[in-house]
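Practice problem: predict the structure.
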Amino acid sequence: MALKPIGDRVIVERFPAEEKTSGGILLPDTAKNKPQKGKVLEVGPGKLLKDGSRKPMQVKPGDVVLFTSWAGDEFKDRRLQAEILVMHEEDILAVIEE
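Answer:
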């Protein structure tokens, strides 16, 4: 099943949580923080404006993004074996360029 976002929504694959600290201590599942970073998988056509035109999206598939901790709705994708988020583009804070 392929997901195609509508409007100004973005589908993001959340990066996995860190398994251990920088000092090498293994973290139990209850201590892991959910990362606020992920990879854009799909983008919608853009926000529909009052005049009937669409505002173009600022992100594109493949971008690595930083988003707010409350951003989007979370789903488990069995095909990818990953957590995906469906969020509005405005919940994205920045694109990370490497």
